Amino acid sequence: MTDLSVVFTGLHFENPFLLSSAPPTESETNILRAFDAGWGGVVAKTIGLHPVVNVYGARTKFMRTVVETSSVSMKKQPGAALHSSWNWELISDKGLDWWIPRITRIKQAHPTKMLIVSIMAGSGNDKELRAWQTLAQGCQDAGADGLELNFSCPHMDRKDMGSNIGRDEGLCSVVTEAVKEVARVPVWCKLTPSTTDIALEAGACFRGGADAIVSSNTFPSLPPIDPETLEFEINVDGLVSSGGLGGPAILPQSLAKMAQLTRAFPDRSFSGIGGISSFREALNYFLLGCGTVQVCTAAMLDQAVGPNVIRNLNRGLTEFLERNAERGFTRVEDFRGIRRDRIVAQSQIRRPADTEYHGGEEPMEGYAEPVPAASA
Ligand SMILES: Cc1cc2nc3c(=O)[nH]c(=O)nc-3n(C[C@H](O)[C@H](O)[C@H](O)COP(=O)(O)O)c2cc1C
After folding, report:
1. Strand, coil or helix: what is 359?
2. Which of 70, 79, 160, 183 ranks highest by number of CB atoms within 10 Å?
3. What's the pLDDT score for residue 340?
4. Angstrom distances, CA of residue 161 to CA of 138, 170, 290
C-alpha cells in the first residue's frame, strides 16, 4: 500500500489534500460529504463575530475562454474551457454559536480527519484582538484541530480586516501573537497575494508564532465589461466592487508567491492553494516545498465538494510515487522542495556561448569592487 499520509504542523493527514475555506466547506453537510469523499482535511469557511450580509444575487461566477477568439467571459459559450472563478462572497454569514455544535459533531463523526477552522476579526483595537481570541478558543474547545487566520479576504471595506491585515507586517505579527496566546492547536496564517514581497508579511507572522503560512487567497480583480451592454458581466444595479480571482488562471501567479515564501523560509511549513484541479498542479506546490495543498474552484464545479477531484488527486499521487519508486520517493516528504532552488536571478541563467550578462549592470573592469563609502 502506498503511503499518502503527511504530518503537517504536527497534525496527521491521511493525504495532503484539503478543501480550502470557501463554499465547499460552508456547512456541516458539505464537510461531512467532503470527508466521506476522501479529503484528508478541510478548512471550514471563515467565521467572524462582525455582521455579514452578502450582495444581492450571485456571489460567484466562472469565466471561460474559447479557442477561436481566446476571449474571456462569464457568458456561457459552447466548447469553452474554464479560465477562472470570480467571487465577491464575504465570510460565513453564520456566527460562532451556529458553528460550535457543528464543529463538535463533525469531529465526532470523523475523529481521524483534520478539521481546520478559518477565523477573522479586526485589528484596530484591543476589543478586536479579544475577538480573535474568542473565536480561537470557541473553535478549539469545540474540537477544531487547527486554526487558519484569514489575513487575505480581498473584499474588505474595513481597513483593519482581511487582506488589509495581510498587507501590514505589524498587524500580521500582533494578531498572530494574540491568537497564539490562547491557542492550544496549530495556527496557520493565510496571507493575501496582493503585496510586493509576501515573504515580509510571512516573516512577521512567524515572529508572532505562526506554525504555517497558507497562500494564495484569490487575487483582487474585476469582471470583464460586456461590449454590447457596456455593463460589467456581473453587477448589482450596474455597480461592482473589486472581487477575487481563483482557478486555473492564478496557478502561475500563486506559484510565484509560494516560491518567494519557501525560498525565504526553507525550514518552515507552507500550504499551497491556487489553480489546483489535479495532481499535476498540486505537484508544483510540493516541489516548491509545500507540505499540504488546498482546493476551491475545482471542487465547487464537481458536486460542490469535489468527490472526483479528491479521487483523482489521491490516484495521481499514488501513481506518481509508483512511477518514481526508483528515485527513492516513498511519500511526499521525499520530493518536497526539490525544485525550490531552481529559481534564481535572471543573470544566473546561462546565455549563448561567448556572451556575459550582469543583470543589466555594466561589467566591472580590471579592479576589485569599490569599497562602500561608510567603511572606506
Ligand atoms: C466563492 C469563494 C468564497 C471564498 N471564501 C473564502 C473564505 O471565506 N475564506 C478564505 O480564506 N478564502 C476564501 N476563498 C478563497 C479560496 O479558499 C481559495 O484560496 C481561492 O479560491 C484559490 O483557490 P482555487 O484556485 O482552488 O479556487 C473563497 C473563494 C471563493 C471562490
Report:
1. coil
2. 183
3. 98
4. 20, 13, 26
